[in-house]
Automatic annotation (TrEMBL):
<comment type="subunit">
    <text>Homodimer.</text>
</comment>
<comment type="function">
    <text>Catalyzes the stereoinversion of LL-2,6-diaminopimelate (L,L-DAP) to meso-diaminopimelate (meso-DAP), a precursor of L-lysine and an essential component of the bacterial peptidoglycan.</text>
</comment>
<feature type="site" description="Could be important to modulate the pK values of the two catalytic cysteine residues">
    <location>
        <position position="211"/>
    </location>
</feature>
<comment type="pathway">
    <text>Amino-acid biosynthesis; L-lysine biosynthesis via DAP pathway; DL-2,6-diaminopimelate from LL-2,6-diaminopimelate: step 1/1.</text>
</comment>
<feature type="binding site">
    <location>
        <begin position="74"/>
        <end position="75"/>
    </location>
    <ligand>
        <name>substrate</name>
    </ligand>
</feature>
<feature type="binding site">
    <location>
        <position position="64"/>
    </location>
    <ligand>
        <name>substrate</name>
    </ligand>
</feature>
<keyword id="KW-0413">Isomerase</keyword>
<dbReference type="InterPro" id="IPR001653">
    <property type="entry name" value="DAP_epimerase_DapF"/>
</dbReference>
<feature type="binding site">
    <location>
        <position position="160"/>
    </location>
    <ligand>
        <name>substrate</name>
    </ligand>
</feature>
<feature type="binding site">
    <location>
        <position position="13"/>
    </location>
    <ligand>
        <name>substrate</name>
    </ligand>
</feature>
<protein>
    <recommendedName>
        <fullName>Diaminopimelate epimerase</fullName>
        <ecNumber>5.1.1.7</ecNumber>
    </recommendedName>
</protein>
<dbReference type="GO" id="GO:0008837">
    <property type="term" value="F:diaminopimelate epimerase activity"/>
</dbReference>
<keyword id="KW-0457">Lysine biosynthesis</keyword>
<feature type="binding site">
    <location>
        <position position="193"/>
    </location>
    <ligand>
        <name>substrate</name>
    </ligand>
</feature>
<feature type="site" description="Could be important to modulate the pK values of the two catalytic cysteine residues">
    <location>
        <position position="162"/>
    </location>
</feature>
<dbReference type="Pfam" id="PF01678">
    <property type="entry name" value="DAP_epimerase"/>
</dbReference>
<comment type="similarity">
    <text>Belongs to the diaminopimelate epimerase family.</text>
</comment>
Amino acid sequence: MKITLEKYHGLGNDYLIFDPNKNELKLTKEAVRLICNRNFGVGSDGLLVGPILGEDKMTLKILNPDGSEAELSGNGVRIFGKYLKDAGYVQKNHFSVNTLSGEQQIHYLNEEGTRIKVSMGHLSFWSDEIPMTGPRREVLNETMMFGSIPYRVTCVSIGNPHCVIWLSDISKDLACRIGRHSEAAECFPEKVNTELLRVVDRTNIEIEIYERGAGYTLASGTSGCAAAGAAYKMGLTDPKMYVHMPGGVLEVEIEEDGSVLMTGDVGYVGKFTLSHEMVEQLRSL
Ligand SMILES: N[C@@H](CCC[C@H](N)C(=O)O)C(=O)O
């Protein structure tokens, strides 16, 4: 049986869709790692498995390129929304999908489904919900050591865990240097996604991202929401802002109850049919 994968990206954060209704393969951690590998596989920042069809809902499973499972991906949900339209699974303009973090609502903002708004769920700064070790508290502006250097850190969950570091200068190099230490720091039992945040003005922020299970990425939807949430919580921005990332810009709006709306674009790259040799190798893993 052939294995086909569809590749999309959300502002340069690229994902492969593995549709279980069209493909048969046991996705072991090793198989996921090989598929996402940029040299030996097709290459991507993650694998989206779905739609897993239930009675009245479609479920999306989100896998990082190291084979671990994520509760949520903002770009992943938008990409999945576009795939569901392209593959004819949905006809409505507004519907919801299930992820490990709960229900996400998807709205198409144009006919082609390339611009999508997603209700991402609620922000929480509470340590037990992120999760983080230590006494229960909101993790706001705490000093944490990453690689023996102290940083002021605000931590937040938007379904998955984030650690936001507010700085006056940010770069890819610094995101990688800090991220390598913060990702698996002891205080984050489920590991963490890291964002370096630069506040441009009250409606614009810039971030550099180091994702849990993926490393440096050009964009991340949940990271954009987490950084926007942290900036707003610290009183640095208005509730509605543009989040500038190396791969492009997301619009993020924080509502009064702490729920977050994210709007951004999705691009389609193409369809990949894996070689017989590759399928054999994946089946052996
Ligand atoms: N790229 C994503 C986030 C993917 C999951 C993340 N690496 C995690 O493990 O939580 C996004 O667009 O949000």
